[in-house]
Design a protein that fits this description.
The protein contains 17 helices and nine strands. By secondary structure, it is α/β, with parallel strands linked by helices. Helix 1 links the parallel strand 2 and strand 3. Helix 1 packs parallel to helix 3. The longest helix is centred in the N-terminal third of the chain and has 19 residues. InterPro entries: ClpP/crotonase-like_dom_sf, ECH_dom, HIBYL-CoA-H. It holds the Pfam family ECH_2. This is 3-hydroxyisobutyryl-CoA hydrolase.
Length: 361
């Protein structure tokens, strides 16, 4: 979708930042992710720009809502730039990575508690940190070309950016919040199509991609506003949710507070097709990440505010980034791309579950 940095504004001129276009159009604060060659993978500069403008517009009465989009046809945001963080960690330099995650989590928390409507138009791939930019908003609009995932198990990390909180709070078409679904999505990294995102609650509305420009114009039209734009341009997705097919099995097997419990449930599960699905999606996962992820989600169940959940993610993420498995996972997925990681330990039974549980106490 085209972007325009020459639109007239009320009281703020367009600011053509290199990686994020930030400007006010009428009463709409617009943020356009603009790192298309990297599929809008977030780096520190992008996060700082978004956070800065959210802070500026939060208490500005002339800005009534926020619209977040991408200038790329392929991606909303493919996640965080973990290659750079890996390289720094390989040299024993963790300060920049610590700074990135601290700043990113501040942005995630602000998006989650923002006092004004936030409309995210999620077109193309959205993974990891991209969900941290979009999934906390009040209106999460997807197109037929959207697909989402939290594939952090493959890189020796955990689903973060507040998703341990969001995934167990979202309701969607299924009609209820589910810790079991959060556990399932976080550990399998299952790719979600628009129907899955709407059923799970990750998305709130659906629009045909051919109508995106009209939708954006309607959102920034002061005479219409967000609710009118949503009502006029969104529609019902035609496909059914593949994720919904496994609702019963997910609730039976993943409603647990540790990976060892989930593993036992899967071993006792009578649905071989579902068990095979889980095994297929976790066969390249870092065993430590599986354990650590469930511990974070279980700890988040007790949280009363997303800031506490982000604190758990930060603690666990800082630990995992300093373990060799993170560098190995990023290598296997993003650098050599051989999809053949050598994780240590490589057997889930050898992971010290209590050690990771104690980190969050």
């Amino acid at each position: 979708m085209a972007h325009d940095t020459d639109v007239s504004t009320n009281d703020a001129s367009t600011v053509p930042d290199n990686l994020v276009y930030a400007h006010v159009v009428g009463t709409t604060g617009r943020l356009e992710l603009n790192r298309p060659r990297a599929l809008n993978s977030l780096n520190l500069e992008m996060v700082e720009i978004i956070l800065d403008y959210l802070e500026q517009w939060r208490d500005d009465p002339s800005v009534t809502h926020i619209l977040i989009t991408s200038t790329s046809e392929r991606a909303f945001c493919a996640g965080g730039d973990v290659r750079a963080i890996r390289e720094q960690g390989m040299q024993g330099q963790y300060a920049e990575g610590d700074r990135f995650f601290n700043t990113e989590y501040k942005m995630n928390e602000m998006l989650a508690v923002y006092p004004k409507p936030i409309v995210s138009l999620i077109h193309g791939v959205v993974m990891g940190g991209g969900l941290g930019v979009s999934a906390h908003g009040s209106h999460r609009v997807v197109t037929e070309k959207t697909f989402a995932a939290m594939p952090e198990m493959l890189i020796g990390f955990i689903p973060d950016v507040g998703m341990s909180w969001r995934m167990q709070k979202m309701v969607g078409g299924k009609g209820y919040a589910s810790v079991a679904l959060a556990n399932f999505l976080a550990t399998t990294g299952m790719y979600l199509k628009p129907a899955d995102m709407l059923w799970s609650g990750l998305a709130t509305h659906y629009i045909d991609s051919s109508k995106m420009d009209e939708f954006v114009e309607a959102v920034i039209d002061e005479s219409k506003g967000v609710d009118a734009a949503i009502e006029a341009h969104t529609t019902t997705v035609a496909e059914s949710s593949e994720l919904a097919r496994w609702e019963k099995q997910i609730e039976q097997c993943f409603a647990a507070s540790s990976w060892s419990e989930i593993r036992a449930n899967l071993e006792a599960c009578a649905d071989a097709e579902f068990v095979d699905l889980v095994r297929e999606h976790t066969k390249l996962a870092n065993p430590t990440s599986l354990v650590a992820t469930i511990e974070v989600i279980a700890a988040t169940v007790e949280c009363s505010h997303i800031g506490q959940s982000l604190g758990h993610e930060l603690t666990m993420g800082n630990q995992l980034r300093r373990e060799p498995n993170f560098a190995e996972g990023v290598r296997a997925v993003l650098i050599d791309k051989d999809r053949n990681p050598s994780f240590v330990p490589n057997d889930i039974a050898e992971v010290d579950e209590q050690f990771y549980r104690d980190l969050l106490r």
